[in-house]
UniProtKB/TrEMBL annotation:
UniProt keyword terms in alphabetical order: Hydrolase
Organism field: Amycolatopsis carbonis
Molecular function GO terms recorded: hydrolase activity, acting on carbon-nitrogen (but not peptide) bonds, in linear amides
Presence of the UniProt keyword Nuclease in the record: no
Annotated ranges, domain CN hydrolase: 4-249
Xref: Pfam families: CN_hydrolase
Protein name: Carbon-nitrogen hydrolase family protein
CDD domains: nitrilase (cd07197)
Length: 275
């Protein structure tokens, strides 16, 4: 499928998984009514994020990636492709993970690689990035702080990802926060990373984020769709909502790469220092 109507969610999620599912069910119904084929939910949509970034002893409920919650998410997705973040249980380890599902089951999975501040006290780290095929094209996934590292998106683009979904629980600044969230410096960073990663790799970028507050955190929302030229096609701003845009993915990528193809024009031998 080339033309895809896609939606990125800005919404609050918490420890009550049943309440989270009720919200997800409404969001999927709204997306389906809008003709959406790809719906991106935020990081930690099942069970909420950490209450603070200094070490949350309790943390969200840890879910089995082959368990009933992920199966339920796939059933709700039906004919849509849906991505969502959750806390994954693997033996005695926990990971900040994301899953991509449709009514056919799990299509892709990602464990967050980069961990800010004290997040490593709550989660293990993932080990890489890989794209995968879906009914709406070849996708890549990353979680929140992953997007601060250009290598993350570049690895996915080199693996053929046409669309990258970044799911976040990105808060406003912890120091010198702005009374107006729209002017917050961490919100500006969030937006800058979204546009830069799309433009660097000439890919479609779908950015979902938590909204509202949870524990000590105030999330910047700002869910958006960005085209391969770095232009924002739809944006929720700092409010809860759906950012929806229809993109002819193949044509958008071809157009962006016609004159200056960033991936094709790379000189890998020149980048050896520093890994």
């Amino acid at each position: 499928m080339s033309t895809v109507r896609m939606a990125a969610v800005a919404a609050p999620f918490d420890r009550d998984v049943e309440s989270d599912f009720a919200r997800i069910e409404k969001l999927i119904a709204e997306a389906r009514a809008e003709g959406v084929g790809l719906l991106a939910l935020p990081e930690a949509a099942l069970g909420g994020y950490l209450a603070n970034l200094d070490g949350d002893a309790e943390g969200p409920p840890a879910l089995d990636p082959a368990g009933p919650e992920i199966r339920r998410l796939a059933e709700l997705a039906g004919d849509l492709v849906v991505t969502a973040g959750y806390c994954e249980r693997d033996g005695d380890r926990r990971y900040n993970s994301a899953v991509c599902v449709s009514g056919d089951g799990v299509l892709g999975h990602h464990r967050k690689v980069h961990q800010p501040l004290s997040e490593d006290a709550s989660y293990g780290a993932g080990s890489g990035f890989a794209a995968f095929d879906t009914p709406v094209g070849r996708l890549g996934m990353m979680i929140c702080y992953d997007k601060a590292f250009p290598e993350s998106a570049r690895a996915l683009a080199l693996d053929g990802a046409q669309v990258v979904v970044c799911m976040s629980a990105w808060p406003g600044s912890r120091t010198n926060p702005s009374a107006d969230l729209a002017e917050d410096r961490w919100k500006r960073r969030f937006d800058l990373f979204d546009r830069a990663r799309a433009l660097e790799n000439q890919i479609v970028w779908v950015s979902a984020n938590q909204s509202g507050t949870f524990g000590d955190l105030r999330f910047v929302a700002s869910a958006k769709i960005v085209d391969p030229g770095g232009e924002v096609l739809a944006d929720t701003g700092v409010a809860e909502g759906l950012a929806i845009a229809e993109v002819d993915v193949a044509a958008a990528l071809a157009g962006a790469r016609r004159a200056m193809a960033h991936l094709a024009d790379r000189r890998p031998a020149a980048y050896a220092v520093g890994g």
